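Board notes, transcribed. Complex of a protein with heme C.
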Amino acid sequence: MYYIALYHTHKLVITLFILIYLVKFFLLMAGKDKTLESFSARIKIPEIVVSSLFLITGVLLLLETAEIRGLFVAKIIVVILSVPIALKAYKIKNKALASLSFLMIIGAYGMAEMNKSKIIHPQALPKDVVTDASDPAYDMVIHGKALYDTQCVSCHGADGTLQMSGAKNLHYSKMTENQIVERINMGKMTMPPYDDFFTNYEKKAISNYILSLQDN
Ligand code: HEC
């Protein structure tokens, strides 16, 4: 619950931040210096509130995030770098610098969205796990657990109780096999969609493992 509230607050604050920035950017580019000055003066307090919330919710989210890598790191660096550039740009009313900082902020937003599917990293199963259903030693739940261990542990934990990145405790899940397969396919919020990643058979195996975790 905490993570979800934080996640949505962060998104809302970013939207407000970008809107304020967009107005300023437009005024600067249009050469409306007087209007820019009076807008900047009037928006000052809300802007401080929005920027602080942006920072605070961002740091709090970071602490709850299961995996920090790739574009996620790039996004944070770009956002941090854009701040001094933006401050300087509006101080000296430089259009090139303002455009640069604007591109950086929009680019960081795009990276955050793209990072979602990049979070899936293929990983081999341990050699002793039987994956051939026609083998007499085959056990669907063991197969499912092995697949789960490669992709799901970072958020849901080895036993399904971890709740990183807003994940749900799988012991309390009441989903049916089909509903779990659907969730694996589509993902939700920070959970990436594994639609093309697993075969239908693998999705079924993982779902059966999750059913075995549920305390009914
Ligand atoms: C990056 C984090 C992350 C990863 C990795 C992840 N999940 Fe999730 N998972 C979530 C989040 C967040 C939710 C809660 C979504 C919501 O309902 O708001 C969730 C919810 C679920 C649910 C629904 C539980 C319920 O009853 O509501 C299932 C089932 C599930 N995940 C299975 C998996 C499986 C299987 C994998 C691996 C293939 C996986 N998850 C990988 C974050 C993750």
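The two ends are 21 Å apart (CA to CA). The mean pLDDT is 91.
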